[in-house]
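Task card 7
Instruction: Convert sequence to structure tokens.
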Amino acid sequence: VQLQASGGGLVQAGGSLRLSCAASGIIFSPKDLSWYRQAPGKEREVVATITSSGSTVYADSVKGRFTISRDNAKNTVYLQMNSLKPEDTAVYYCRILRYWGQGTLVTVSS
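Output:
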């Protein structure tokens, strides 16, 4: 199983980024999918989860700003991040079951 995350980068506060995570070697559609992040000096935390039926759950810190979605035909999960804040700066990871992507760095400048 491989998870390939992409889409991170440097953006100014208030800007937007869209992260993607493409999975291979796993049957994608019946699985819950999640995005996590880990800021420097902090523990990894869950940001958003989308279930196999399409239900979504968000951390309070990103509600109303981030949107998780999935395309089962492409085996890809997305994280649309709007109104970014400096405190969103972190390495973002996708996760399916016990499998993790390699992480993509998001840096938000003030």
